[in-house]
Structure formats: C-alpha cells, structure tokens
Amino acid sequence: MKFQILKNTIALLLLLFVMPLIHGQEFPILDTSPLDITIARNTDMSPIVRVIYSRPQKRNRTIFGDLVPFGEVWRTGANEATELEVYEPLLLENHLLTPGTYTLYTIPGKTEWTVIINCETNAWGAFSYDETMDLIRIQVESSRAAAVIESLSMAFKPNSDGVSLMIGWDDRFIEVPFRKVQ
Q1: Considering the domain boundaries, does residue 4 fall inside one?
Q2: In principle, which of 5, 18, 48, 77 could form an S-S bond with 54, CB 3.0–4.6 Å?
Q3: Is this structure's pTM higher than 0.85?
Q4: Would you say residue 23 lies in a domain?
Q5: Domain residues for 118?
C-alpha cells in the first residue's frame, strides 16, 4: 500500500515538473503593470459604470511632467488604453454619456487635467489617439495626494447625485464626477 502511494506520488511529480520541460512549456513573466478593474454599483448591485486599466508602478520615478509629460494625451495607465463601460445614462458636466464602451484618456497638467471620453475602443496606448473621435472633454482640478501612491489607482466614490472616479498616482489625484440622469 505504501509502495503504491509512493509510486503514484512520483508519477504525479513527473507529470507536473518534467513534462512541461520536455514540451518546452514556459509560463510568462508577470506583467509589471497588472490589469485592474473598478466598478460602481447601484444599491441593487446593478452596475453603473466600470473602468478597466493597467496599473503602472512609480518605482522611484518622477511621474507627472516627466514619465507622463504635461500637456500630452495619456492612455491613463499602461499597456492598452483605459476602457470605460457605461451601463446607464450619465452626465459629465452637462454632456450626456449614453450606455456603451469608450476609451478614457487624460491630458495631465500641473493644476488641471483634461479628461477625454473617446469613441474609439481597443486602442493600444495613445499611439492611435484620434481627437475627431472625442465625445466629451472636461477640465478637472489636479490635487496633491496625502501620501505617495505607488501604483496608479482608480476607485469610484459615491456622492449625492452619482459617483466620482478617483484617479491617483505618485503625488497627484483627480476626481471625475459622473452624475445620474434624473
């Protein structure tokens, strides 16, 4: 009985460790800017809006004004451009944003950022950014974070008339207010 357990254990170990080597199977190195998602929900748990983005790391670099230049369109993350999916009509300032999938770009500035909702989807970075596909552009204040934010982070914060998308990295953050259509 003990011999049979040992034999089965050895066979299992061979399958797990030797077979991938024989077939040349390798697992990829982990992405240094992992994909993340944040979602805002109604009280009944139905979705309002969702953001899918990659989270680059600060790693002792100067981010805004250097790695992410001021005054230039940024994918608002790493790798693919940030995806915004809207599940119910929302207002950004006085602009109606209907349900659908969009790309979220930003143009960081020292004190103010431009937030761009663009109709093009599945874009890699901002390399193919086309301003003629912009649906909405708004200006938001850039504020100093209470502490350094190592990984680009996004989260929704509920407010009295909708939700705000908080975007923070390094020593800065912005708040993008989405209002529900009444």
Answers
A1: no
A2: 77
A3: no
A4: no
A5: 30-180
- Is 93 domain-assigned? yes
Which residue is listed with tokens 């989807």? 121
Q: Is residue 52 predicted with pLDDT exceeding 80? A: yes
Give the confidence band of 33 by pLDDT, cuts at 50, 70, 90.
confident
Q: How far apart are CA 112 and CA 66, in angstroms?
A: 16
Radius of gyration of the chain (CA): 22
- What does the pLDDT read at residue 126? 86
Residue 25 lies inside a defined structural domain of this protein: no
Residue 176 to residue 118: CA distance in whole angstroms: 15
How far is Cα 114 from Cα 150, in angstroms, rounded to an integer?
22
CA distance 127 to 103: 13
Q: How far apart are CA 54 and CA 79, in angstroms?
A: 6
Q: What's the total number of domains in the chain?
A: 1
